[in-house]
Amino acid sequence: MSLLQTLGYIVGHPLNKGRPLRALAGFAYWQIKSRLRRGPFVVEWISPAKLYVRSGEAGLTGNIYCGLHEFRDMAYLLHVLGPGDCFVDVGANAGAYTVLACAVRGARGYSFEPVPSTFERLKANIELNNLTAIANARNIGLSDHPSTLKFTTGEDCTNHVIGPGELTAEAVPVPVETLDASLAGTCPTFIKIDVEGFETPVLNGAAKTLDCPTLHSIVMELNGSGARYGYDDTALARLLREKGFVTYEYDPFERQLTDTQGRLPQSGNALFVRNLALVQAKLQTTPRVTVHGFDL
Length: 296
Prior knowledge:
The chain is α/β, with parallel strands linked by helices. The protein folds into 2 domains: about 1-70, no CATH class; about 70-285, Vaccinia Virus protein VP39 (Rossmann fold, 3-Layer(aba) Sandwich), CATH 3.40.50.150. About 35% of the residues lie in helices and about 20% in strands. The chain has helices at about 5-10, 20-35, 60-65, 70-80, 95-105, 115-130, 180-185, 200-205, 205-210, 235-240, 275-285; strands at about 40-45, 50-55, 85-90, 110, 135-140, 140, 145-150, 170-175, 190-195, 215-220, 245-250, 255-260, 270-275, 290, 295. Strands 5-4-3-9-10-13-11-12 form an 8-stranded mixed sheet. A 3-stranded mixed sheet has the order 6-8-7. Strand 4, helix 6 (about 115-130) and strand 5 form a beta-alpha-beta unit. The radius of gyration is 18 Å and the shape is globular.
């Protein structure tokens, strides 16, 4: 993302609208601060959550600039999870979603991050927030059968399984398992999947998990990246429809879901929901939280 695109994202973010000077001042402050001293820095996020953040970590710095980097999806998580729920983070990266679910909302967590250097950042954020008792982090990948796959290592939040014919100087072999085997019968409430196009094998290895009656929400990045492996986003949506999930858009300010009639977003994450009555009840009753000066 270019500097101009970054500034446009910051100023246009829903939690910065109407406050462009404050937003740009926050960006400038972080840029200066992160260059004067080598990180990581401990950043106070959404009480009581904290994050270790380094200069250049696109996903994490977005939370500094805007409160919630992926606004609708992160706000939805905050609005439907609570103590007693179980959150599964597939492709956890440095753990922003895990920290939101476990530190802010008190849910149990299972986090999967394949790249060893990124996994160390995930563990550090779990330990920073004293979550080791409720957040189970595993340094593995997920697929439809156990094996070993090679992952890129130098692409920050876009590291991925190396595709057919893909050449890279930085790669690491990582053991992979199925989600069903890894959870060993534990039924989640909410699953977030961000695996840069490898969603199809992940879901194919999660048949029992998808049938869990407690599972009501899946947030999954669908941006066409599956084409590098020969996978199609529409087939994934069809699989989830067969499991009873419906695609929705979410308005965090109104806490309102809108049925997209099967339409998938052109970029970013897709939200799949089933057991709508239960979810809507949670949206009505989950306590509000202060984020970036807004009471959400």
